[in-house]
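Please annotate the following for my students:
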Amino acid sequence: VETTVSEDGSIILSAAAMPKLTIKPISEYQALGLETKSVQVWDDVMDALHLGDEPAAWLSRFLEKDCYLVCVSGDH
């Protein structure tokens, strides 16, 4: 997977045989009031903002495993 950051702060993911995926700046997701999920990273459990169905579908297709994309606040 290749990543690029655009001028507006969006992250663009690209990979062979996959359409490009644009992930908006996190502030835009926060403004939408999306759900949070409890996630575990190594031994730490924390709340994370679920970034929606489109990134989840893209990553699940690429990884061939059900998954979703989340964002953890800078406090962790």
